[in-house]
């Protein structure tokens, strides 16, 4: 089977129900979600299954959900049936609460880093924020965009922050506080950060 089709050689790409330019904001948004999924896959390779079985299970679920998000964003057909619902968001919120409770108390901003897995999860977090910004832009430009994807990405960045902190904590690696940070977290252990 050949994996190249040559249909995109002139800068166009296929959507579900149409075609568009490869630099269209819709393509940018679901392309960034694909990039995010790859970083999560990298994080999976850096987490010891004996220590991080729960997070690995979370990340596999998230990878499937990201495919759903990308598919929903790529769907411009007249008969759209979206795969994403609020149920994964609610499940993720419960997991965030568990991870935050496990993490050391947090008062200040921290530097991304620590273990390789934590560093990769922080990269994934920032890519998630970029994808979220692109979905916001897409929503402003077009009416028919599944807004649940935006909510999911917003919550996912919080999950990845919490998971990165646990990736360090379980390996006995301390987060490094940003030295010029004031005490910015009102609720100790809160995962709310850059941009809410």
Automatic annotation (TrEMBL):
**One GO process term, biological-process aspect:** cobalamin biosynthetic process
Q: Could you tell me which pathway this protein works in? A: Cofactor biosynthesis; adenosylcobalamin biosynthesis; adenosylcobalamin from cob(II)yrinate a,c-diamide: step 2/7
| Residue stretches making up the Cobalamin adenosyltransferase-like domain | 3-167
This chain belongs to which protein, by name? Answer: Corrinoid adenosyltransferase
Q: Which PANTHER family match?
A: CORRINOID ADENOSYLTRANSFERASE, CORRINOID ADENOSYLTRANSFERASE MMAB
Key words of the record = ATP-binding, Cobalamin biosynthesis, Nucleotide-binding, Transferase
Q: How does it assemble?
A: Homotrimer.
List the InterPro entries: CblAdoTrfase-like, CblAdoTrfase-like_sf, PduO-typ
Give the EC number(s) listed in the UniProt record: 2.5.1.17
Q: Does the keyword Nucleotide-binding apply?
A: yes
Reaction it catalyzes: 2 cob(II)yrinate a,c diamide + reduced [electron-transfer flavoprotein] + 2 ATP = 2 adenosylcob(III)yrinate a,c-diamide + 2 triphosphate + oxidized [electron-transfer flavoprotein] + 3 H(+); 2 cob(II)alamin + reduced [electron-transfer flavoprotein] + 2 ATP = 2 adenosylcob(III)alamin + 2 triphosphate + oxidized [electron-transfer flavoprotein] + 3 H(+)
Keyword Protease among record annotations: no
One GO molecular-function entry: corrinoid adenosyltransferase activity
Pfam families, sorted: Cob_adeno_trans
Q: Which family does it belong to?
A: Belongs to the Cob(I)alamin adenosyltransferase family.
């Amino acid at each position: 089977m050949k994996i190249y089709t040559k249909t995109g050689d002139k800068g166009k790409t296929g959507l579900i129900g149409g075609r568009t330019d490869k630099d269209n904001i819709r393509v940018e948004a679901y392309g960034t979600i694909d990039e995010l999924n790859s970083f999560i896959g990298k994080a999976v390779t850096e987490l010891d299954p004996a220590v991080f079985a729960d997070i690995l299970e979370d990340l596999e679920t998230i990878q499937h959900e990201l495919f759903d998000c990308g598919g929903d964003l790529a769907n411009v057909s007249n008969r759209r049936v979206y795969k994403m619902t609020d149920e994964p968001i609610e499940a993720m919120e419960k997991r965030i609460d568990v991870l935050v409770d496990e993490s050391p108390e947090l008062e200040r901003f921290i530097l991304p880093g620590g273990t390789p897995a934590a560093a990769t999860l922080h990269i994934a977090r920032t890519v998630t924020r970029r994808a979220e910004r692109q979905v916001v832009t897409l929503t402003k430009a077009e009416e028919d965009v599944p807004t649940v994807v935006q909510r999911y990405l917003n919550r996912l960045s919080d999950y990845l922050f919490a998971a990165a902190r646990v990736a360090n904590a379980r390996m006995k690696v301390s987060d490094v506080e940003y030295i010029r940070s004031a005490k910015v977290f009102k609720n100790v252990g809160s995962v709310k950060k850059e941009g809410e």
